[in-house]
Each structure stands twice: as structure tokens, then as C-alpha cells.
Amino acid sequence: MTNAQIHSIDSVSNEKANAYSDMIYFEGGNITIGANDRTPLESPAFNIKVAPFHLDVYLVTVSDFSVFVNATNYITDAENYGDSGVFDFEKLNWMLRSGATWEYPLGPNAKKAIGNHPVTQVSWNDAAAYAKWAGKRLPTEYEWEFAAKNGENLKYPWGNDPKINNSFMTNVWDGKTIQDQKVLDGYLYTSPVGSFPASKSGVYDMVGNVWQWTATTFSPYNTDNAFNKKVKVTRGGSFMYDKALELSYTNTFRAQNTVDSSIFNMGFRCAK
Questions:
Q1: Count of CB atoms within 10 A of residue 190's CB?
Q2: CB count, 10 Å around CB of 65?
Q3: pLDDT tens, residue by residue, 220-263
Q4: Does the pLDDT value for residue 157 go beyond 50?
Q5: Most exposed among 10, 50, 80, 121, judged by the fewest C-beta atoms under 10 Å?
Q6: For residue 123, which of 229, 265, 261, 256 has the smallest C-alpha distance?
Q7: What is the pLDDT of residues 69-111, one digit of tens each?
Q8: How far apart are CA 243 and CA 178, in angstroms?
């Protein structure tokens, strides 16, 4: 794998200035995608060449998404359906909560979403609509992994260990089970974007905080056949418990969801 040449570029400014965040330019190059020593969906590892691309430094925030909604009168899938996915920490199960939206990700009786936190309860359809409006697009999962690895064969965006000097590098589930609700990193739910150290390339929240939609239709690496074109790859892990624990927020871990699904720990960033 060759080292990526990484350059900062200025913020794009126009009528939608708040919808554009700083971006990092990745010159692209050869990369090993996946891993053979982790989970089945990450193997077999293979080599590809990634073309140059830009990636948002930050996850799209609640404030960013609000600008988009106010400018376009866009209605999300969760609003159209009337409910969305929330995990109930008292009953310890997932549920469709009536009235849960990007503005009230835990439901209408809970606190309103905070502007500098990543927007959640957005489907792939919603994320793609935002990206198109902003003059951008969703990253492919290969671009996402290239950026996360910083041109190196790293397990995490910062290195090969979940922590550095016993310090949390991102917002993730701190316990070993779903019942073990430790909040050692300071956040049970989402954290403000940029609260934890940037990756080596200068991207914040590359893993942890919220899952990130990609443009890629899900299929196993050992086949070119997508099982369902309405199922997209998600990357990065989140603040929420995952049975893979610290493997869920590695640079190679893959998850999936349908294009119209919205949940309280799913967000996105844009590419160009």
C-alpha cells in the first residue's frame, strides 16, 4: 500500500455555505480492502486502486441538516413513516418509536437534537438527497476505508490499539455487554462532532459516534452479486453497543441497512 498524499482545501462557500464543511483531499492509490483475521464480512481481503477524492472533515451535523430542510422543505423517511428506530435502555430492546425524527431522535417526549451533534434518524435516501443538494455525494465504502486507513495498514484511524495511553480516541460503547452501560468516554449517546482527536489525515469521528452511510450496495467480498440493491454498506461503528465490541469500529468492519431505514445511531458525511 502506498502512502496517501493528503491536502486540506478551503471551505466551499455559496448560498448553501452552512451545508458545506471543510474537506480533505485524498490523492488515492492502491489499498488493501478488508481483513482476513476479524469478522466474515471483512474477508477475503483484496487490493484495489482508489481514484482521488475529497471527504468531509466532519460528520453532517443537526445544524447542517436543518439548513437543508429549511431551504428545500425536505421531509425525511422517518417523518413520512411516522416512526423510527430507537434502542430502549430500560427494556433493552430496539423499537420503532412514534415521532422519532432527526429533530427528536429519541422521540417527541425527549430532548431536541443538539445543533453541533451529528444528525441521526436519517435514511440513506435522506443522506443522498442532502449530499446532492450540497453539490456532493456519499463516499463509496472503498473511499471511506482509504480515508480511515490514512494510506497505511492501520486497524483504527489513529493506530492499531483501541486506546492511546489509555485515553478514548472516539465515542463508543464502553461496556462489555448491552447491560454494562459505562460512560467512561463522557457520552452515552452522540457527542459533538470533533470532540475526539482527528485521524492522522485530519478527519474527525471517522469511527465511533454514529454509523455512516456509504454509496455502496452491500454484497459479500467473495461475490460481485448484490443480494438486494436497496441494502447499503454502513461503516464506522457508533456510540451504541455492538456484539463485535472494539472490532465494530475498526477501519474494515462492515454493516448494512436498507435505504429507507432510520435509527438513532446512524448518520453520514459527504464526499466529492
A1: 28
A2: 28
A3: 998 766 678 899 999 999 999 999 999 999 999 999 999 999 99
A4: yes
A5: 10
A6: 261
A7: 999 999 999 999 999 999 999 899 999 999 999 999 999 999 9
A8: 8
Q: Which residues contact 115 (CB under 8 A, 6 or more apart)?
A: 61, 62, 63, 66
What sign has the CA pseudo-torsion 149, 213, 170, 6?
A: positive
What is the CB-side half-sphere exposure of residue 250 using CA atoms within 13 A?
21
**What is the rounded distance in angstroms from the CA atom of residue 185 to the CA atom of residue 169?**
9
> What secondary structure, in 3-state letters, does the chain show?
CCCCCEEEECCCCCCCHHHCCCEEEECCEEEEECCCCCCHHHCCCEEEEECCEEEECCCCEHHHHHHHHHHHCCCCHHHHHCEEEEEECCCCEEEEEECCCCCCCCCCCCCCCCCCCECCCCCHHHHHHHHHHCCCECCCHHHHHHHHHCCCCCCECCECCCEECCEECCCCCCCCCCCCCCCCCCCCCCCCCCCCCCCCCCCCCCCCCCEEEEEEECCCCCCCCCCCCCEEEEECCCCCCCCCHHHHHCCCCEEEEECCCCECCEECCCEC
pTM of the predicted protein model: 0.91
Q: Give the list of residues 6+ apart from residue 5 with CB closer than 8 angstroms, or none.
A: 27
Q: In whole angstroms, how far apart are CA 39 and each of 33, 35, 140, 220?
A: 13, 8, 20, 12
Question: Cell numbers of 212, please?
Answer: 455512516
